[in-house]
Amino acid sequence: MLQTWVLVVQAGRRVWTRNYWSSKGTHISSSLARRLWQQTYITKAADSKRGEIDISTYPPDRIRNFSIIAHIDHGKSTLADRLLETTGVISKTGKNRQVLDKLKVERERGITVKAQSASMFYEHDGQKYLMNLIDTPGHVDFSYEVSRSLAACQGTILLVDAAQGIQAQTVANFFLAFGEGLEVIPILNKVDLPTAEPERAALQIESAFEIPTNNILHISAKTGLGIDMVLPSVIEKIPPPTGSADSPFKALLFDTWYDKYVGVVCLIAVKDGAIKRGDKIVSSYSGTKYEVAEVGIMHPEQKPTTQLQVGQVGYIACNMKTVAEAHVGDTFYKDKHPVEPLPGFEPAKSMVFAGIFPIDAGEFDRLNESIQKLTLNDSSVSVHKETSAALGQGWRLGFLGTLHMDVFRQRLEEEYDANILMTSPTVPYQIKYKDGITKFIRTPSEFPNAIVMQERVESTMEPFVSSTLIFPEQYLGSMLELCSTHRGDIQTHTYLDESRVMLKCKLPMAEIVTDFYDRLKSKSQGFASFDYEEAGYARSDLVKLEVLLNGEPVDALAAVMHKSSIATAGRDIAKRLKDVIRRQLFDISIQTTSNGKVIARETVKQLRKDVTAKCYGGDARRKMKLLDKQKEGKKRMKKIGRVELPQEAFLSVMTKSQE
Ligand SMILES: Nc1nc2c(ncn2[C@@H]2O[C@H](COP(=O)(O)OP(=O)(O)OP(=O)(O)O)[C@@H](O)[C@H]2O)c(=O)[nH]1
């Protein structure tokens, strides 16, 4: 039986040391120690040792729940650092860099992917306040996280880079917050930059959002200039949460993640009543009952408190087994005291799909486990098993956008050491049949064949988005051209001030997942910003492009696209395949076809290669070595009929088609 294990409490977070010993002096694994500790922790928690803090002295009128929303890179996370420093949550070492961006990928890419919250204690006019800040991601793919965060707030800081002015995401986020009825505090950041034009940016805010310029704070989150005005302004302008301490407990679950020490953690906003450790709560969504093992606030790590009460935002850990049980938007109530559920959120919709396959089929199980672990903390990724004749067993994953997809791939490779092949992204198409049935097509292999298309299909549909582009006036011509070459339908263009244009355009989502964003950046030399929201499905002439190697279809290279793109894409893929397929002992014909018609044809001429040719005489050992080496090389080949296709061929065709 375990007698001692070492637990170090560091800044409110449990950190396990490397060695654990049983009473008999035998070494036990850290996972066993952790499990044993968790069991004890849940059943007989000892409050005194856990250093719970008491926040019951903060009634709703001394609580402010707010977030920071902005365009990507306008400085939200840096401002969060300064606020955490001002309130003593983190020390002023000058080394704090986006403390709330905890994921490795966030630090490397300098973007926020996962919204994080942090509670701070702040004194203003002789009164102590509990300030709950929810940091939000800025990129378009993660706007789902933004709307979830806003549901837990009564107000928000709209941060605008004084040098860049209003960008597409600023507009989208403002209207998201405005639509939720939140109080918006506009703040101009980066006023220390020599290129900053705060007056101009303020006028843009006034003209776009009808906010008077004299209400706008000017700060530098980097140097700290004006930071001491931010929290007083939040206290004065953002209303306190409403709700009743005497009503039965009711809380909104607005975020969830898996913590390896306490299991599933749910971030909640308490709308009525209070909750403490040991309480039994019920999920309105599933009716499942849970026992609360810990309640607390993020400070900025998990810090247990004696209770969470009306108006407060904090976390609870209960005996939930997987994050799948925690439905974001769910309402919790106390057992035997049911309440009317709060309005939930629409589930996140997958906008982009891609196949993931292990490069080495023997790694399937390990990869399966890694994907499961990663999706534990990102429930917006949808996962379905998929089998491809060319690539073997894998998965079809749905993402919120291409950056989301890229971040997922990077995390899989870096955090889980996965060696994967990812197919080109596609969007979910729809097929409307003559008998009234509509089906989603998430992979090209689900696309009906030519006969079914002719006899049973009434129409094909693709998803569209309403997009907003903001850029300096001199790029108007190239932006209009970009939209029209991507099948865009331009709706309006207006001037935000004398030299900045806002263009509204309806675009097929499929055009955005390929190269639209990169072209937008290169054509505007990085000055254009772009944001979009779903605009439903519309009829579109869709066809399937197939790739045949010596007459055998290669399912992993097939694609669904608009009829107008098929000729160029067909020629392009055939040519690129010719460049990457190594010559083999016979001719290889490459064909791209659509509806049975050949679009392009290329041939890789045969080559008779004798790897032992250079070994004169009877050096049998050397011959064997060369033959073994050749065999080894062949293992990494995929066989398509008789044609051997190296992994690099897939990779090169697929990555190039994403550029
Ligand atoms: N000069 C200057 N640079 C700043 C200021 N605030 C932030 N930055 C820099 O701007 C860059 C982006 O800042 P972040 O805080 O990561 O921006 P963000 O809005 O959180 O970005 P996302 O989370 O990706 O949306 C970083 O290099 C910061 O150091 C400022 O006031 N002045």
UniProtKB/TrEMBL annotation:
GO BP terms, alphabetized: positive regulation of translation; translation
GO CC field: mitochondrial inner membrane; mitochondrial matrix
SUPFAM superfamilies tied to this protein: EF-G C-terminal domain-like, P-loop containing nucleoside triphosphate hydrolases, Translation proteins
Keyword field: GTP-binding, Hydrolase, Membrane, Mitochondrion, Mitochondrion inner membrane, Nucleotide-binding, Protein biosynthesis
Topology in membrane: Peripheral membrane protein
GO molecular function, a single term: GTP binding
Record field: catalytic activity: GTP + H2O = GDP + phosphate + H(+)
Pfam families, A to Z: EFG_C, GTP_EFTU, GTP_EFTU_D2, LepA_C
Domain Tr-type G stretches: 61-242
Cellular localisation: Mitochondrion inner membrane
Entry-linked CDD domains: EF4_II (cd03699), EF4_III (cd16260), LepA (cd01890), lepA_C (cd03709)
InterPro entries reported for this sequence: EF-4, EFG_III/V, EFG_V-like, EFTu-like_2, G_TR_CS, LepA_C_sf, LepA_CTD, LepA_IV
Binding residue positions for GTP: 70-77, 135-139, 189-192
Segments traversing the membrane: none
Keyword Membrane applies: yes
Primary location recorded for the protein, binned into one broad class: mitochondrion
PANTHER family listed in its UniProt record: TRANSLATION FACTOR GUF1, MITOCHONDRIAL, TRANSLATION FACTOR GUF1-RELATED
Role description: Promotes mitochondrial protein synthesis. May act as a fidelity factor of the translation reaction, by catalyzing a one-codon backward translocation of tRNAs on improperly translocated ribosomes. Binds to mitochondrial ribosomes in a GTP-dependent manner.
Protein name per UniProt: Translation factor guf1 mitochondrial
Organism: Coemansia spiralis
